[in-house]
Amino acid sequence: MATLWDVVPFERCGPLEFGMTRDQTRAILGADFDAYQKFQGPTGLIDIYRDLGVFLFYDENGGLRFVEVNMPCVPTYKGVRLATNGVANVLKAMTAIGEPPVEDFSAYRFDRLGIMLYVPDGERLELVSIASRNEYEKVLNSIKRRAEKRAAQKGPPIAPPRMDWSTAVDDSGESN
Q1: What is the pLDDT of residue 158?
Q2: Full strand arrangement of the beta sheet holding 12-13
Q3: pTM to 2 decimals?
Q4: Number of H helices, E strands in the chain
Q5: Which end of the chain is more exposed for a tag (fewer CB within 10 A), N or C?
Q6: Residue 75 zone, left/alpha/beta (φ > 0; ψ -120 to 50; rest)
Q7: How far apart are CA 40 and CA 152, in angstroms?
Q8: Low-confidence ranges of the chain (pLDDT < 50)
Q9: Are the C-beta atoms of residues 41 and 170 closer than 8 Å to each other?
Q10: Distance between terminal CA atoms of the chain?
Q11: Cβ neighbours for 17, distance < 8 A, ≥ 6 positions apart
């Protein structure tokens, strides 16, 4: 059974507000999680709630900065279910409410909302990512730097490797 989590752009995803500490998010979601070191540095330790389909990323001060979700958790924005009706339907519904996506290789971004849909094969929605304002600005800056590097290269542009949104920026603010 799906659990619906309302998204308030740059503020919260479901019951979790950006900036909450690990202790606060754990008090809300419970003790059934795995702590996993996804990448180096203090921001690399994430909490995984497998039964909920929720992955939580924290900033260098320990505040919640980024949420990734998949089934059974379904984030919603203005009534649009972002994870259950197929990517084409989500894109159509978001466009209908005035939020057209930006296509970005293996993802669709909603820059005014801090929401990203990871679609590795162009059809199957694998993850929905919701970011704090600061985190989303880092992601956009990383994308911009990568685009500038590609534009500066001689020859035809090369498709970049799969983008892992949660690690797009390392602890120093530089793109990985």
Answers
A1: 57
A2: 16-17, 12-13, 3-8, 73-77, 80-81
A3: 0.83
A4: 3, 13
A5: N
A6: beta
A7: 29
A8: 170-172, 175-176
A9: yes
A10: 37
A11: 11, 64
